[in-house]
Amino acid sequence: MEKLKDIVNFLNDYLQVNEVEDKSWNGLQVEGSKTVKKIAFCVTAGGEVFEEILEENPDLVIVHHGIFWKKSNPSVKSWMKKRIQPLLETDTSLYAVHLPLDKHEEVGNNAQILKKISVKPKESMADEIGWIGETKGDVFEITEKMEEILDKECKLLNFGPENIKKVGAVSGSGGGCIYEALEKNLDLLITGEERDIAEVARDGKINVLFLGHYASETLGIIALKKKIQKRFSVKSVFLDFPTSL
After folding, report:
1. Which of 94, 109, 165, 200 could staple 30 via S-S, CB 3.0–4.6 A?
2. Which uninterrupted H or E stretch holds 65?
3. What is the DSSP string of 110-142?
């Protein structure tokens, strides 16, 4: 059993949540029990997700996409009250970490994408959210490896060289970074959801690998789960709730 405040303080410090400008209210979004025996990890928070998660009876839920965003109405009423009711009724805490988890050099989504294909993150991109590294990989072998790791089919725009030297990763909706990828002379941009950038990729002679928005953001939360397991004496579980994106 651990104290909630100790876990929260560790996460805030380790992920540097107060040093990253974000549209998400990162950190503890809902406070529950002061003690934690079990933590559930998932990508995105929501009513149906909470209902299924709480069958695991966690004391704390840690997510990448939380429920409170800076441009939304913060009032806990109507649909929002119903949304978080399962957490309130079970005294379960909710911790959210958005961009700080995308950009983190160790457990971040983009660092993890590169590490899965044996590439060391060396240079940042996309306002320091994404990472760039060097490799001698084959674009088709990289695609197959990511499909195997994520257990899903990925979409490859094969308009660049087959033999990759420079690769960048920007998870989620990072396809808009293709112009920066071209400026930085990337051979391959790995991102999440598909965007209509085929003609730019073709003309720029760059490969783009779409993993899917959800799939591209599972790796960071899984890596964070492993980090927490080593640091604290708690049980933990990752719950997979794929979306169509």
Report:
1. 94
2. strand 60-65
3. HHHHHHHTT----EEETTTTEEEEE---BHHHH
Taking alpha carbons only, the member of 155, 200, 158 closest to residue 181 is 200
What domains, with CATH codes, occur in the chain? 2-98 (3.40.1390.30), 104-214 (3.40.1390.30)
Residue 102: pLDDT band with limits 50, 70, 90: very high
Mean pLDDT of the chain: 95
Q: Which of 194, 227, 211 is nearest to 104 (CA)?
A: 227
Per residue in 30-58, pLDDT (tens digit) is: 999 999 999 999 999 988 888 888 889 99
* Residue linked to tokens 């195997």: 148
Q: Which amino acid is at 243?
A: T
Residue type at position 55: E
Q: At what angle do helices 4-14 and 219-231 cross, to 10 degrees?
A: 130
CB 210 within 8 A of CB 13: no
